[in-house]
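Tip: read the tokens left to right.
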């Protein structure tokens, strides 16, 4: 499966704003959106994910659910993105449909190497620059950091820059 080069990661102050922003991203031609809600109950995420699945299906946009592989399976999202403190991708793979993709967050060369051994579909490498959208931000990599990691990896696994 070819992974789109540009991912829209949802944002907003409320779940409703996330929904509205995803609708806009899809209408502007986003090929892939990631539903990323923090500090919200799984039930609310599931309900919103079902609404988002309807929107993305209408626009033929791929949908990735952040953190929650069980929700990704339930709404038949195109995949899940797992952070460093989320479930192991090997465990998630056992629960997902065979066609669903798994992406994972990495911040270092070592993270990337370890994840690639777990047969994930893409690595979300970051942060590229400083951001306020993530708590406990890892070391900013910048262009030099990204270049060094990508050259050292020399992998077929897609590396998507985050932040």
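Filled-in amino acids:
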């Amino acid at each position: 499966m070819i992974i789109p080069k540009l991912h829209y990661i949802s944002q907003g102050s409320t779940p409703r704003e996330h929904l509205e922003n995803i609708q806009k991203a899809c209408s502007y031609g986003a090929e892939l959106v990631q539903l990323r809600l923090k500090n919200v109950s799984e039930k609310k995420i599931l309900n919103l994910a079902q609404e988002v699945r309807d929107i993305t299906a209408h626009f033929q946009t791929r949908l990735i659910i952040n953190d929650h592989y069980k929700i990704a399976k339930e709404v038949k999202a195109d995949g899940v993105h797992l952070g460093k403190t989320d479930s192991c991708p090997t465990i998630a793979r056992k629960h997902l449909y065979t066609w669903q993709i798994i992406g994972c967050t990495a911040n270092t060369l070592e993270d990337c190497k370890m994840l690639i051994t777990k047969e994930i579909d893409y690595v979300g490498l970051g942060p590229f620059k400083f951001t306020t959208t993530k708590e406990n931000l890892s070391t900013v990599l910048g262009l030099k950091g990204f270049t060094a990691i990508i050259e050292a990896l020399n992998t077929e696994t897609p590396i998507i820059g985050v932040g």
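DSSP finds six helices and seven strands in the chain. The mean pLDDT is 93.
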